[in-house]
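Hey, can you fold this?
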Amino acid sequence: MSSVAEYVANLAVVRSQLDEARTDSVVADALPRTLAPYVDRAVSLSDAGDAAIASPDGRVVVASDPSRNGTAVRLGDSDVQQGRGWTGRVETPGGAVVAGHAPVIADDGTLIGFVVAEQPYPSVGDRLSDTATDLLLFLGLGALLGGVGTWVVSRVLKRRSQGLAPREIATLADHREALLHSIREGVVAVDVEGRVTTANDAARETLGLKGDPVGRRVDELGLDQRVVDLLAGTGAEVRDAVAVVGERVVVLNRRAASAGGRGIGSVTTLRDRTELVALQGQLSSNLSITDTLRAQTHEFANQLHTISGLLQLGEYDELGALVGTLTRRRAAITDRVAERVRDPGVAALLVAKWSAAAERGVRLVLHDATALPRLSPGTAADLTTVLGNLVDNAVDACAGGRDPHVEVELHAEDGTLRCAVRDDGPGVPEELREAIFVRGFSTKPEVLGGRGIGLPLVQLICTRAGGSVTVGRSAFGGAQLTVLLPVTAEVPV
């Protein structure tokens, strides 16, 4: 339409007639007859539905439709009256039209009229029919590319899914979810960015998580920093690490996860050992009492055999001296322990361990700085389990040596109970000081059996109570294990 309007506007006859019509009324009256052939010719040679020549004030001078002569031209947003060409959409009573406007400029630069060429705006059907060929071509190409892409994707998926069909993959995913959420042990998977990718029901309950943790960073779950480090840490795997979550004692094991030789994060299993710690503590105490009773039975049997022999020989003076010596020795041990250890349970344990150590040829010594008040029942139970295990380990470590002895130091102040057990055995190498707290690890011969439980139990009890246990070298050259526990004494020292 722009080309049609510009063609008519640039005809010499159109320009001259409009220029003359400005000053000659006769020429102006004859314009409809003079210029009509040029307008009709422009319409016949183009796709224009209508064409018209208008005066500068917007009145039709001559149009291909004579009924429009003298009417006002609908210009829409056109700025052709400012002497600029324009194309666009114009709303008319007959509907929307595509219009092209071209100004007619005199030689002196004055606007003497303009030409309008219009065509009815094509309907949706007309536009579709005009583009049907191209549309079919593009649709065909799109279908071809889609088919090829679908084939490539299906080949890749089959190779990645080991030939499983979509239904089989869905079934496998359902089984995986059911398996993860049905096992009682907690499972948490974390990607390389520290975001949780999997957490089953047991893990959420054990960690006390609210809401769905999947997709969130581990450090945003409100967990203790130690638990965060164990779950999202990198590097070496973690075995039987102990952490306290609320009132639970949790044991964590973490292993790195990889796919195609590329690290994708880690998987951590969590086991709630709160009840097990209590049961292990009771069992350890019972075993310790059993061993102590056995040692005392053996000691008393030897003494009774000696007394029986002296009676049969009639050595009554020797018998009296022996009984007096045994009585004084037992009283000295009991008095020394009772003087410094006011808690009856801990004192009874030390007296019993004294006999058990003596049977193994080990001297059990109470440090001069020992001063322990009466403890609450819970703290006393924890301390007897911890102390019993530490003394047993120390006796095992130094038994058979030259003048073996074990030293126990107990005292409580400022709300902290300190328990240190030292021996003169071979000690614990620095590279094994963390490994000895792993369940099942032991430096003792395998033939002894049942090893690797005592120290992990000590660590679990200390962790649950909010304390700690450390390993170092004693002043005697052996090992020193130091336990710190929060405590409130019932009776002052």
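Oh, and this one too while you're at it.
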Amino acid sequence: MTSTSSPPAEMTVLSPHDGTPVGTLPCAGEEEVRGAIATARAAAPDWARTSPEERGRLVRAAADALAQHAEEVAALNTRETGKLAHEALGGVLAGVGTLHQYAELGPVHRGHALRGGALASDYTVAEPRGVVAAITPWNDPVAVAAGLLGAALVTGNTVVHKPSERCPHTGARLGEILAAALPDGVLVTVTGGPETGRLLTDQADLDVLAHVGSTETGRAIARAALDTGAHVIRENGGNDPLVVDDDVDPAWAAEQAAIGAFTNAGQICTSVERIYVHRAVAEPFLHALAAEARQRNREAALAPLVDRRMRDAVHGHVRAALQDGATALEGGEVPEGAGSFYPATVLRDCTDAMQVMTEETFGPVAPVRVVDSFAEGLHLASRDRYGLAATVLTGRIAHAQRAIAELPAGTVKVNNVFGGAPGGAAQPRRDSGAGFGYGPELLDEMTQVKVVHVEMPSSR
């Protein structure tokens, strides 16, 4: 991939609440990007030789430092992205927990003994890959970054981190706090927009490109790695379905759908993006879902979308669906006033020809299609180019097992849209990415395996 334009000198972030400036930061150009990589490369040998226990101790200290500044970082996140204050703080604390988790897992990450000759030793050794470029998103900037940074650091890699241009102040402050607890050069942060990102991923002196964000950007990163040979880890967009069976309580199902579609104003990679509901419970389900949306709108319980560009994209999907025959039971109109707020929206009579069903809308929109059977809903849910996550609501174990077997997604959830145990990891499918992005398996992604064979020398 070849960069087509140089970064601007600086970027200004506007508040999604009222459009006022949050602040201005510089955009790293080619000299700054190359310098950041050179700094991380120079620090890599000593960091790789540092004992796993010591690396774990230092990452734990970085996590503790972040915990001390949690409210400050959360406030920055709220100002830049509009995330509700308690959710922003929750994201920072989740990041602290993730760093602590990797600080514990890193020292016990090990190779495997192999079965060889009786007088020989055969085993594998996990070695750091080198320098990791981590490109992270704005929708949960601390929690997501903590996963990639923590796993890379405890396995002996050094990191150049580029946070999203939609929350550069949050990312820069996160980098300052963590880097202060680590040896010089082990973690370097660069800020900038897409041009800076392209400059970073184009560089040949990188060993890993780790990305969480849009499918379009993920594809560009994967193409760049074809030239540079970097290992790619990417979690990209999703168009996650929810299938509602005919034997569940429609009010409970609507509550689950609302949580999945409206939490963080729908700006979560695993948000519910399309709903297939059995005709037998469709009407009470739609009535209850519209009531859930109406309550959120009436109580102003939604955060704004990250900016007006995102709101324009979300409303574009909704407007096109309404023009093609969908009906808005709640929401669907751009509110007056400053900022980038968008109402919780419920659409009925949707079809799979509509963009709101085929693409990731990434806003507080719940498009619904009525189906005549669970099998039909499962079939339609499976027919998509994404494969991040999927949820089914059913009281039948046979239907749950069939969904688990047939849904082509990295994560399948039954009867809880955001359920899951700590430390879980999944491999996204199709256009949603590749590689493990979380959990203990991310330590494997950040290392490369060396096979060792040792024998006694010949006595002849």
